[in-house]
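Tokens as discussed.
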């Protein structure tokens, strides 16, 4: 597998892992399921595409078509992560709230307090802009570290 792809995939995994301790600092509890979920800080989508673009920029140069493709692809992914996908997540939240309101209006006598439905729409789809920026910064750092590590290995051989 090529080094740029390895870098991007490793960065995605790192970003997904980092969501767990970051969320633990916010809530006080560990939630290992976050590793397999979308949304949250940092954006693994942004981290992966930024790592790839950074690695390519350092390896091949910013004037190459390789970097242009990676940068454009990255911008589209990051825009989508904080735009369209975030809006879909907010819509899912509202639909879940409406479903709860309908259940309450039905007046089910067996329910004193409404318990959330088991099959709610996934609301954690997209990212806040700060989560996208956090992912992009993580990606640039790992892309640069990977490039320098590869360069150092080449010199030793």
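Sequence:
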């Amino acid at each position: 597998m090529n080094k740029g792809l390895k870098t991007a995939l490793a960065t995605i995994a790192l970003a997904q892992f980092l969501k767990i301790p970051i969320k633990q600092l916010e809530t006080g509890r560990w939630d290992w399921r976050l590793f397999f979920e979308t949304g949250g800080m940092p954006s693994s989508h942004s981290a992966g595409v930024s790592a790839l673009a950074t690695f390519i920029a350092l390896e091949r140069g910013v004037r190459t078509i390789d970097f242009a493709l990676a940068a454009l692809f990255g911008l589209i992914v990051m825009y989508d992560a904080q735009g369209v996908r975030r809006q879909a997540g907010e819509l899912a939240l509202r639909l879940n709230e409406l479903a709860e309101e309908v259940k309450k209006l039905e007046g089910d006598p067996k329910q004193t307090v409404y318990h959330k439905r088991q099959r709610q729409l996934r609301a954690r789809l997209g990212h806040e802009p700060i989560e996208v920026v956090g992912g992009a910064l993580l990606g640039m750092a790992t892309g640069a570290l990977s490039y320098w590590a590869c360069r150092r290995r080449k010199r030793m051989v």
